[in-house]
Design goal:
CATH architecture of the largest domain: 2-Layer Sandwich
Helix content: 25-40%
Low-confidence stretches: 222-226
Number of strands: 12
Order of helices and strands: EEEHEHEHEEEEEHEHEHH
Structural class: alpha/beta
Radius of gyration: 19 Å
CATH class of the largest domain: Alpha Beta
CATH superfamily of the largest domain: ATPase, nucleotide binding domain
Distance between the termini: 65 Å
Oligomer: single chain
Number of domains: 2
Strand order of the largest sheet: 3-2-1-4-5
CATH topology of the largest domain: Nucleotidyltransferase, domain 5
């Protein structure tokens, strides 16, 4: 079963094609967030290189978030359009699940952290069970200090990856000491092959969707939506005092 997967949830733009457990090709760019310009040429190049047509893909998959609002929409819309054009199913994979899949270490906890700005991170804590990372917490959008308290409470070696490591490494090391370590650079950021592998696992369990069902997964509202709500509340409060 062949799967084409993309991840555009962050600065990284990634595309991969797998045929069952075999990785046929992967293309990763970690340079500027220009997914609208780069993604389709990346897909075309990798498909041409492995001599596949879109009709030969069985499943189309995308990282669905959390992450960049604009980036997620670009990746998901691209996958929906391709799947619709050839009448194939899709699978959405949470970004944090795919990041955790980068680090297959069964005797430690895995904690991907994505920068959510203002000293906050998108995160969850995982452990490996039967070749799949399984959540031991819910998905969270919290301050890094709160996450460290949660990890301390697990009293277990924890491996961190994700783009927020670069921002919070010193704090994590200072607070957790020998109970923390960090993934190698090559496993630190999003990989479309991890999205593809998890999509295949989900497909084997019947977790397929139509292109119309695939939607982004947001842990919080966008900055524009938050600002709109603040303005609306200020307007309502001003009206009450008039």
């Amino acid at each position: 079963m062949k799967v084409l997967a993309v991840d555009t949830s962050s600065l990284v733009a990634a595309v991969a094609v797998m045929d069952g457990p075999k990785l046929l090709g992967e293309y990763i760019i970690n340079h500027k967030k220009t997914h609208s310009q780069k993604l389709m040429p990346m897909i075309k190049e990798i498909m041409d290189s492995i001599e596949l047509d879109p009709e030969e893909i069985d499943i189309f998959a995308a990282s669905i978030g959390p992450g960049s609002f604009t980036g997620l929409r670009i990746g998901i819309t691209t996958i929906k359009a391709m799947a619709y054009a050839v009448g194939k199913p899709v699978v959405g994979v949470p970004t944090l699940d795919a990041l955790a899949y980068n680090v297959p270490v069964p005797d430690a906890l895995i904690c991907p952290i994505m920068d959510a700005r203002n000293n906050q991170v998108y995160t969850a804590v995982y452990k490996w069970e039967r070749d799949i990372p399984v959540k031991v917490t819910e998905y969270m959008g919290i301050e890094i200090s709160e996450l460290v308290k949660i990890v301390k409470g697990k009293n277990c070696k924890t491996i961190f990856n994700g783009d927020a490591v670069e921002i919070h490494r010193e704090f994590i090391e200072r607070e957790l000491g020998e109970y923390c370590c960090f993934a190698p650079a090559i496993l630190m950021l999003q990989k479309a092959s991890s999205v593809a592998a998890l999509a295949l696992a989900r497909a084997s369990e019947g977790m397929l969707e139509t292109c119309f069902d695939l939607v982004p997964f947001y842990l919080r509202k966008s900055q524009a939506e938050q600002e709109y709500e603040r303005r609306r509340l200020r307007g309502e409060n001003n009206a009450e005092t008039d």
